[in-house]
């Protein structure tokens, strides 16, 4: 009798359980009534004092320095995180593939190297790094939670895996995802559901939800996820972490399993890989280490240039002048619920007193409102048929999220795809006016602009054949730009707080930046407070559509106490391929908004402080 999909899933789960050493198993599971498990690793007795210090006291930036100086050995650091990852998994079901013995063997080899030669292998020497299940690691499955892809170990590594190993990293586990990767909860029929360690009744996010839960539990000091609609940023928000989605081509992406036919991503939206971490500087460490490893030598799609060459100092970023930050309060499709609106207002008010930031309110609805339907269409240019074909091979049913939101359909025609990309090109061109400041429509501060005649009459639209030769040349009178360009945009990650399991509503606030290929990062600001539950939607505020009506259900008629203690975060966005600028802007904003985080603390020690 042939194996059923249930048989395959059980066999895979049994294999995973056997890969956890018996001495690392919890003697008893916490009570089902314990909603937050974030502190269990510290209390369970499995971790020694030095292992608690390694996993809680230091971030990745601290650890690589101590490893390079031989203050810590890679073996003891990797052991600590393997043990804590095993504990985190038993509490949240966050792991898929476990290869602790191989990780420890590599750690010992790295220790031997630095003892013999006195120098680290690379910038990530001896640092344990976890990976989303989509990355191929030779000898292990890349099943992405689909039974037909199990027990088929990879033979070739993903290009980012090669890059990380060349930089000296130690890879030790892979993390859970949703079936088909196209859901905002990390649940599948092979490995089951990942839980949010801060509150098990809330979602950990998707599709890099396993990474988010593992990093939040301090079972990883630096994780790598992927993002095509919010899959790094959503788990970062749900777990109170930092996460950055770069532009396509900044980080190697080759050799991934996406539950799609090879090359199909080229016809629609392309995903990118990026870090999830407990500190912003660790995100910078990841990017600098990867980019300066010259990954374009092994991945033809990666842009060339060192991290230093993409530094904001060469992109109009000056430490002597205040940043100009635009605050986008709504996308025009789903209006943020009261606690999210309040958070944005608090940020606006706080930035007004900062000497390092100048903030302006942005009304971008005319630009952002059309992006949601365009994004959804470009996400499914292949019709999703291959994903359902993979499920049908074993008779595996789709999870509810997928069955309710995705139906296999014929691939879009060449003409349909061309038309979608034409709309995308126009949207990207239109958005340039936002970065230049022209969208704000501010009047010139001094002399006339270059496109305004000296007699005060409006300039003619476009450039005529008679005048194009002088285009861009200064006029006889000294002129200045009419507006100061924006350095970044702040907006919600979602129009709602971290929702209960299976209740994530809208991806528009994250997916639009994939459409435009802008780097976007998440900064945790503070925790949801009991006082926030008392906020109400203004009586005169009407729902603006079906998405907005669904969004309001997460507030009206809800037991809002479920949100108390969950993280509140915002998203920061910069122009395409300016990741170095994004990291520095986020650093300035983090400092400027520090007062909003005073007195905030979650579980897991100093590094969990928001």
UniProtKB/TrEMBL annotation:
What Pfam family is a match for this entry? Amidase
Is ATP-binding tagged as a keyword? Answer: no
Q: Where is the Amidase domain?
A: 76-400, 486-582
Q: Which keywords does this chain's UniProt record carry?
A: Hydrolase
Active-site residues, record numbering mapped to chain: 132 (charge relay system), 207 (charge relay system), 231 (acyl-ester intermediate)
Q: Which PROSITE patterns does this UniProt record tie to the protein?
A: AMIDASES
Molecular function (Gene Ontology), one example: amidase activity
User: Which catalytic reaction applies to this protein?
Assistant: a monocarboxylic acid amide + H2O = a monocarboxylate + NH4(+)
Q: Where along the chain is substrate bound? A: 181, 207, 228-231
Q: Which family does it belong to?
A: Belongs to the amidase family.
What's this protein's name? amidase
Source organism of the structure: Viridothelium virens (Speckled blister lichen)
């Amino acid at each position: 009798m042939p194996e059923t999909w249930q048989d395959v899933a059980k066999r895979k789960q049994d294999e995973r359980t056997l890969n956890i050493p018996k001495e690392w198993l919890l003697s008893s599971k916490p009570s089902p009534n314990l909603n937050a498990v974030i502190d269990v690793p510290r209390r369970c007795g499995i971790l020694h004092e030095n292992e608690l210090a390694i996993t809680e006291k230091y971030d990745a930036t601290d650890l690589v320095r101590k490893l390079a100086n031989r203050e810590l050995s890679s073996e003891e650091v990797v052991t600590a995180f393997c043990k804590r990852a095993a504990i985190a998994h038993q509490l949240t079901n966050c792991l898929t593939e476990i290869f602790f013995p191989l990780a420890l063997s590599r750690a010992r080899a790295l220790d031997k190297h630095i003892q013999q030669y006195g120098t680290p292998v690379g910038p990530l020497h001896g640092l344990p790094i976890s990976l989303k299940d989509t990355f191929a690691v030779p000898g292990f499955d890349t099943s992405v939670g689909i039974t037909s892809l199990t027990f088929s170990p990879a033979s070739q590594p993903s290009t980012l895996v090669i890059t990380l190993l060349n930089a000296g990293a130690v890879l030790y586990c892979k993390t859970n995802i949703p079936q088909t990767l196209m859901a905002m909860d990390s649940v599948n029929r092979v490995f089951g559901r990942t839980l949010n360690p801060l509150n098990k009744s809330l979602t950990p996010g998707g599709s890099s939800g396993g990474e988010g839960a593992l990093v939040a539990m301090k079972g990883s000091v630096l994780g790598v996820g992927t993002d095509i609609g919010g899959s790094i940023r959503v788990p970062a928000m749900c777990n109170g972490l930092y996460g950055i989605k770069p532009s396509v081509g900044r980080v190697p992406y080759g050799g991934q399993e996406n539950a799609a036919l090879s090359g199909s991503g080229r016809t629609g939206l392309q995903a990118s890989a990026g870090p999830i971490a407990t500190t912003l500087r660790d995100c910078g460490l990841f990017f600098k280490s990867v980019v300066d490893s010259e990954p374009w030598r092994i991945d033809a799609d990666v842009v060339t240039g060192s991290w230093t060459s993409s530094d904001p100092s060469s992109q109009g970023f000056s430490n002597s002048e205040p940043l100009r930050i635009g605050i986008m309060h709504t996308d025009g499709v789903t209006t943020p619920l009261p606690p999210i609106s309040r958070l944005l207002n608090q940020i606006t008010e706080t930035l007004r007193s900062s000497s390092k930031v100048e903030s302006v309110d942005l009304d971008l609805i005319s630009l952002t409102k059309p992006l949601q339907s365009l994004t959804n269409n470009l996400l499914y240019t292949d019709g999703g048929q291959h994903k359902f074909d993979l499920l049908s091979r074993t008779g595996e049913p789709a999870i509810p999220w997928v069955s309710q939101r995705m139906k296999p359909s014929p691939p879009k025609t060449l003409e349909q795809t061309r038309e979608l990309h034409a709309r995308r090109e126009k949207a990207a061109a239109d958005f340039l006016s936002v970065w230049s400041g022209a969208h704000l429509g501010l009047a010139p501060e001094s002399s006339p602009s270059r496109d305004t005649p000296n007699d005060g009459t409006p300039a003619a639209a476009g450039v005529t054949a008679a005048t194009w030769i002088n285009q861009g040349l200064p006029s006889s009178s000294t002129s200045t730009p009419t507006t100061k360009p924006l350095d970044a945009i702040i907006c919600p990650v979602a129009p709602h707080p971290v929702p209960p399991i299976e209740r994530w509503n809208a991806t528009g606030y994250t997916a639009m930046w994939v459409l435009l290929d802008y780097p976007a990062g998440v900064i945790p600001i503070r925790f949801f407070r009991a006082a926030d539950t008392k906020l109400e939607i203004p009586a005169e505020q009407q729902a603006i559509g079906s998405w907005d009506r669904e969004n309001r259900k997460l507030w009206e008629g809800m037991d809002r106490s479920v949100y108390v203690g969950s993280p509140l975060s915002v998203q920061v966005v910069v122009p395409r391929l300016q990741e170095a600028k994004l990291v520095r802007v986020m650093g300035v904003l983090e400092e400027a908004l520090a007062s909003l985080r005073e007195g905030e603390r979650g579980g897991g020690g100093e590094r969990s402080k928001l």
